[in-house]
Task: structure prediction
Amino acid sequence: MLEISDLTVAYGGVIALDRVSLSVPEGSITAVLGANGAGKTTLVRTVSGLVTPREGSVRLEGAELVGRTPEAIARLGVGHVPEGHGIISELTVDENLRLGGLWRRDRADQRVAIEEAYELFPPLLARCAMPAANLSGGERQMLSIGRALVARPVALLLDEPSLGLATALLAQIMERLSGLVAERRLSVLLIEQNARSALSVADQAVVLSLGRVALRDRADRLASDDALRHAYLGF
Amino acid sequence: MRLFAIYTVAGVVNGMVYAAVALALVMIWRATRIINYAQGAMGMFTTYIALVVIQHGVGYWAAFAIALAAGLVLGAVTERVLIRPVESQPPLNAVILSLGVLILLEAVAPMLFGGQTQSFPAPFSRIDIAAGSTQLYISPFDLFSIGAVLVAMLVLFVVFQRTSLGLRMRAAAFNPEISRILGIRVGRMLTIGWALAALLGALAAILAAPAIFLYSNNMDEVLVFGFTGAIIGGLESPVGAVVGALGVGLALSYVSGYVGSDLAPLGGLVMLIAVLMVRPQGLFSFRGHRQV
Result:
């Protein structure tokens, strides 16, 4: 369970997040929707420790994350798939995957986790010795998600995985991911501008507007309520 | 022909020392995006430590090991105490700090170790080997110097390319933020990187000392020539740095042999300017452009 409560973030004097609260139960996906500048990326960057909040708390299975370094938060089980993939293009595909869990003590399980990532995303295996720079957009996204999974995270933060991906490919990646969410009891926070795609896999959804929670509901209800969709999501 | 052979061997031997310095500069550049102007002075300082140890009756090899270990410590402490606090500031601040370390070490060394120029022993003969009646123009110490730098390079290559520590260090250098969210302690990787770079600098300095003698700024020229080699190699590429530094060593040796030894430093400068004008990204750089 990932619990965010009363999280307030300010850049200088500008409030980016204003007392945002939400929780992501185990084995479920919470979509965070909203326009550009709504504070979506700030939210995930604060959870993973890259941004320090002014107030509020983030708890993962009861442990407070605010105040810890990003590397400590990663080691507590937060996997972050950053906006724009965040793969290290100078390293090979295999090296990128290995980086996912280099801090883990269990070397044997680490190897298993890497094999599982290749099974989950077979196109990566064929390119394992290539520099990650050679990958296509979809493969980069697979690599980034695979790399986060290698660490065997408890919570997974996905920041705009749809960016630059063809709809069919995105659907394929999300389908594999949602299978894993149930199987591994992951708490997934899915940041999306592409509301339609996010609502199709999410269990619940939160709409951010100018740093505030404007709406929260079950994803299926939000997707089917025409008035809400028009008002907040624009489709 | 005989002269050419002599100059070539001398150029390679000097070039290997410049290569060690160049490689140290490249390692720090890649990890922290700054040029460590104190790289040579740190080597001078650790060589003085070795000299003190030798003067206390300890053998050369123990002193050699102590100098390299002192390099590791000096590099780690410099990063942790001086560079880390300005890490998030513009790189110029760290560059100025490294200049400060250079001035500090060169000022403190004469106070601690005496101001006069001292000779430094070589563990092997510096007289050229003769195979029967043929002179080979290379001494046992020259061979040791080349071998020691080659071994250091090989060890570093294996560490960086084949170990998980090396992978973490490369990741931290390429993308610190992404590395942190993957659980890599980037700060620790930088400390280790500075330590390894200073070890290379210490090696270069202790190998250079028998020929250039030991005084507080004895490494200034070596640093400039190593820097020139690193720039020629593109500053990003370890292989480029080694090749560039060897080229500088050879070119300077030919200039000082055929033209005049007074002109050698000028030759280094001309090479640096020529490369910066014709190909500012360096001969081995894979990146499009770089600020000069």
